[in-house]
Design brief:
two-stranded antiparallel ribbon, alpha/beta, Rossmann fold, 7 strands, five-stranded parallel sheet, 2 domains, 17 helices, globular, Hypothetical protein af1432
Length: 359
């Protein structure tokens, strides 16, 4: 593999050439130079060469994109170069890119999970190591994460490369001991998992008593993905708290102030929660922090939270959006894509993915 054979993706590779790195961790120079070294090291790793074709492709794409957000995250602070937040930002950028070029959903999200957590194996087993490994395992396959991390550690010039490689090896052994090296950590139940990720210091092996008294289905997905259709087909008799409906009644556009819309939606939800009546929360729900605040409300009333994520291919989504009664401007969808965090099982009791089948 060579940088002269990069895939024909709409990526500004020159931005990586212009992006400096801290010489303590990357004395080899810019991000593009580092990428070339990582690709060379990856090709020689037995852990990569022995993978099946799909997993090799997933790791290869994750390597290509693991530092894709460094140009926008790189700063100089106190005389040092830092790219804090580039892994999380990189996962968002990778998702949009891979969706736009039509990479199948499961393969795309496997890549995004690796990009999001690619630094975890090199950090060592300090405080919070158990939660870090368990959280990573829910969205990234940790054995593949270790292959990526080993190539990343080898593909650089730094002060103590052996320490990084030792950390990766320890992370692999630790995940194997936890039972989450090749699969997500096995929680006793969906409620146990839900409570674990909402609480600090909770034992992940504890089988939490399920005290939920009602249920909420939270919809998530870009405008035009098909959320309304799913509700009609699967929850026809449930009341729906619809942010689009509230906007329509109040004459508030998608790009307008949303505080009034959110306040009314939450008040409608409280009414159903007080009655212990199952209902659907119908919104795009594309931001993890916004979902968390809404799920906090549901959980405070003892609700079991199901998230239903609906996705469509790019061409289908834009066509269906144009056929809606209230069309969302494509410029608005573009802004959503820049913050597009799809839900995962760390956020809810149950997760339903309604996505296009792989070709």
């Amino acid at each position: 593999m060579a940088l002269t054979c990069l895939p024909d993706w709409p990526v500004d590779w020159d931005a990586l050439r212009r992006c400096p790195q801290d010489p303590v961790h990357h004395a080899e120079g810019d991000v593009f130079t580092h990428l070339g070294m990582v690709l060379t090291e990856l090709e020689g790793l037995a852990g990569w060469r022995t993978l099946d074709e799909i997993r090799r492709r997933i790791v290869y794409h994750a390597v290509l994109l693991h530092d894709i957000a460094k140009p926008q995250c790189t700063r100089r602070e106190d005389g040092r170069i830092t790219s804090r937040g580039h892994a999380a930002r990189g996962a968002l950028d990778a998702r949009r890119l891979l969706w736009e070029i039509g990479i199948p959903f499961e393969e795309r999200e496997a890549v995004c999970g690796l990009v999001r957590h690619h630094m975890a194996p090199m950090h060592g087993l300090g405080d919070g190591a158990e939660e870090t490994a368990i959280r990573a395992s829910q969205t990234a396959q940790c054995d593949l994460l270790c292959v990526l991390a080993e190539a990343d550690a080898r593909g650089r010039i730094c002060q103590d490369p052996r320490a990084l490689l030792d950390n990766v090896a320890l992370f692999r052994e630790y995940c194997a001991e936890l039972g989450c090296l090749e699969r997500p950590f096995p929680f006793a139940s969906g409620h146990s998992r839900f409570e674990y990720f909402r609480s600090e210091g909770r034992d992940p092996r504890y089988h939490a008593f399920d005290s939920t008294v009602t249920q909420v289905t939270m919809m998530a997905g870009l405008p035009g993905a098909g959320k309304d259709h799913w509700i009609r087909e699967n929850r026809p008799d449930w009341p729906v708290v619809s942010l689009d409906r509230i906007r329509e009644v109040r004459g508030i556009p998608h790009g307008g102030p949303q505080g009034e819309v959110a306040a009314e939606a939450r008040e409608q939800a409280r009414g159903y929660l007080r009655e212990r009546r199952p209902f659907v929360w119908n919104a795009c729900s594309l931001n993890r922090d916004l979902r968390r605040r809404t799920i906090d409300l549901f959980a405070s009333y003892g609700a079991r939270v199901e998230i239903v994520y609906v996705e469509a291919p790019k061409e289908v989504l834009y066509r269906q959006n144009r056929q809606r009664d209230k069309v969302v401007p494509e410029a608005g969808i573009a802004k959503m894509l820049n913050k597009w965090e799809i839900p995962d099982v760390t956020e809810c009791h149950d997760l339903v993915m309604v996505v296009p089948p792989a070709a």
